[in-house]
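Case study.
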Amino acid sequence: MKKFLSLDVLRHELRAMGFLVLFTPLFVIGLYDGLGALMSVGNARQSVIGTLLSAGLESGLSLAAGMLIAWVTVHDTAIELQLTIPTPYRVTALRRYAVIGGWTAVVAIVTTLLLHLLTPWALSKPLGIGQLLWLAPTFWFAGVGAILALLLRSSAAAGVVLGGFWIGELLLHGYFLTTGWMQPWFLFATLYVPDASYWLINRLTLIGLALACFVAVWFFLRNSEWRLEMEDA
Amino acid sequence: MRQLSIVGGALRYEFSMQMHRGSVWVVLLALSVVAVFASFYNAQHGWDRILSLIPKEAVIDWTVSTNWSLSLGFGLLLADRLPRNKRTKMNELFGAFSGSPGARLLGKYLGSMLGTAVPILLCYLVGLVYIIVRLQSVQDLWLALPAFLAVTIPSLIFVGAFSLACPAVLWVPLYQFLFIGYYFWGISFYAVGFSGIPTLCGTVLTSGGVFRAGGFFGVQYDLFIHATLAEAIASTVLMFACAAIALFALWGYLAWQRMQA
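After joint prediction, the assembly is written out as follows.
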């Protein structure tokens, strides 16, 4: 565990993935919050700006995390070399997920703190439990993105499916919210029904699904050679 | 003549590559299911929705649905085509060839687009067969070809050009995120029920196809758009013009990169 999270190793993984994995979450939050700031200058309704700021965390950051995870899952310029070293490839993959997840969490927590201080009306939940606003969908997109990238053997194809879920759930939100068995699966519950009785169950279900996906990824990568058969390799 | 043969060679190679990518077929066929639901099913009529439409409406509705659903996958699947040349070190090899890089770029664009459009065309044809079977009529079926050419093709050309050009300067996952964002903001925004945020949705710059469906074929789509013929023409011209600008900018950028190397 000590070696798994050693600073040198993490720094190495970051260099291998490219520093754009750090830039992307910042860019996404900047995009949403920048648009929110512009709208406040243009005297847009406070509720619309609040929805936008909250959406940056719940929908924007989570989709970006899924895209990043799908990308790093199938792209590694030194994959043949990786498979010859004593550290199993799945440990390396998990370490990379930890770097992306950890950085996304830092960006999200700092953003929620700033929103809490500067625009408290934008957040519909208290600071502590409110972290599930971004945590659950981000975890879900990351887990589903990783397993899809492996199964479809392509990060581009995984991106299409993630994008389809993202747009589909936003478009069909009415259907998800009014159909009992669909409610726990809805990704953007805080955006539409922050006070729903099933909100917490919804968040925990999404996290549970994500965990199941990461377990599947772990077992998939046990056979390292499969990783060589990626379309993007 | 030589330039044409370079375009043809690149086109054939890219076309073949896209056709042999299993994920292109899997993902576009999955999105076809979304198109089927969007066009043939609704809460009020269930699967009999199509019986409430006249043949012309059914054909145009199916065209718009396939365009709307499948252009998302089309754009995302083309995003990794240009970076692939760099990753596989093909750029250096191409640099040693005597042929024009512009011709190779055009061949790459056309070939990857045509290869990715094949599953879309197949999905479209299967939907037309369903329409014939359910409506027991071939009336207005001839509209399918002009509708595909006027509604779907301009969108694919527009989306394809930007998906080839933008990843030259943007990291692929970042471009994919922005493309999904554009797709939501520029095409589906009103349908989601958001308002108060400036959007391309409902303007002739949207690639959703509703302006061309309304203006050329008289099937008015959304409650908020009543497209005229002039708007349909403007939308078509803008799709082609934006695609040409994106490709020209890409050509210039790649030429500049070669000069720097």
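Observations recorded in class. Chain A is about 70% helix and 0% strand. Chain A touches chain B through 41 residues (CB under 8 Å). We will return to this complex in the next lecture.
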